[in-house]
Specification:
With 208 residues, the protein is of the alpha/beta class. The chain has one domain: Rossmann fold. 32% of the residues lie in helices and 19% in strands. The chain has seven helices and eight strands, in the order βαβαββαβαβααβαβ. Helix 4 packs parallel to helix 6.
Length: 208
């Protein structure tokens, strides 16, 4: 299987029919856009692998997406809680999260979580290099890199090994500059206004 070449710098990685897409930014809609692309790919007869990092099977898409078509595989590599660095959440915000979040010092992520996401990364490596899937979505992998759960260098490596015809999407806030530099397409979701600021909780079927 021919592999793409990593050109580095600010140029992209060119893999013929398969490109590297990044959906990032603080605005809502990154995972939603990736799900939409997956549905479109299925409609075109493509085979899809949807890997979710830092997410458990608690989101509404899990009630439907795996059953839309036998051509899509959905796998999660996450825990039933969020993680945050020390200092990210304070006072009322920290009290609101209670047992829904695990706090850790920068540079010292939970070893159990690192091992779990390493398994997800190896799954992604095999899928991207093997060419079995036409589209591979790595949902929230950008945030996993930001929190040092997955090394940026390791993600760049699996992108270099990607089979020519495989399209890959990396979603999540805080996409590293190195990932943005090597991507062929980058979309930044920018928050202009959000009802969260009015105290609205995440709603099932909309945010979760």
């Amino acid at each position: 299987m021919d592999k793409g070449n990593y050109f580095g710098g600010v140029t992209g990685m060119s893999f013929g029919k398969g490109y590297i897409q990044v959906y990032t930014g603080d605005g809502k809609g990154k995972t939603t856009a990736a799900i939409g692309l997956a549905i479109r790919a299925l409609g075109a007869g493509k085979k899809v692998l949807f890997l979710q990092f830092m997410k458990d099977r608690v989101y509404s898409e899990h009630n439907l997406l795996p059953y839309v078509s036998p051509a899509i595989t959905v796998e999660t590599f996450g825990k039933p809680f969020f993680i945050a660095w020390e200092g990210d959440l304070e006072g009322e915000n920290l009290a609101e999260w209670q047992d829904k979040v695990v706090i850790f010092p920068p540079g010292n992520p939970p070893a159990e979580y690192v091992a779990l996401l390493q398994a997800g990364l190896e799954r992604a490596r095999t899928a991207l290099a093997g060419g079995e899937y036409d589209l591979v979505v790595l949902d929230e992998i950008n945030l996993a890199m930001y929190y040092d759960l997955i090394p940026v260098a390791a993600v760049l490596e699996i992108l270099r090994e990607k089979a020519v015809g495989v399209e890959v999407v990396l979603t999540g806030r805080k996409a590293p500059p190195e990932i943005i530099a090597c991507a062929d397409l980058v979309t930044e979701m920018r928050e202009v206004k959000h009802y969260y600021s009015q105290g609205v909780d995440a709603r099932q079927g909309i945010e979760s």
